[in-house]
Amino acid sequence: QVQLVESGGGLVQAGGSLTLACAASGRTSIASADAMRWFRQAPGKEREWVAQMLLSGSTYYPDSVKGRFTISRDNANNRLFLRMNSLQPEDTDVYYCNVDAGWGVGTQVTVSS
After folding, report:
1. Which of these, 99, 108, 107, lies nearest to 4 by C-alpha position?
2. What are phi and psi of 32, to 5 degrees?
3. Which of 23, 43, 80, 113 is the most buried (most CB within 10 A)?
4. How far apart are CA 50 and CA 57, in angstroms?
5. Cβ within 8 Å of residue 56, ≥6 positions away
6. pLDDT for the residue numbered 28
7. Which pLDDT value is given to residue 16?
8. Are 40 and 62 in contact (CB under 8 A)?
9. What is the mean pLDDT of each run of 10 residues along the chain (113 residues)?
């Protein structure tokens, strides 16, 4: 069974940084996943993609976070990360990791102005 658990969310002031982690277990292997992504979603809004890493290691970001967010992985420990710098109040959301077809339960990030 695929299991993904996010951690690292919390309250931070504008301009601050957070690193989210996604621990994979069960049949999920970060090292062999075709695609790994981080999404975010606010109540009443659609889920928004914020970072993607392919099996090759290539990374992609939307313009809204490019230069501020960095996706990375730790194959040995089966973990996915999202480093978020220069956070702004509009980055406040629940953040989810997605590895192939698996989804985590989310972690709340709140940025105060």
Report:
1. 99
2. -115, 5
3. 80
4. 16
5. none
6. 79
7. 98
8. no
9. 89 98 89 94 93 96 97 95 97 96 95 96
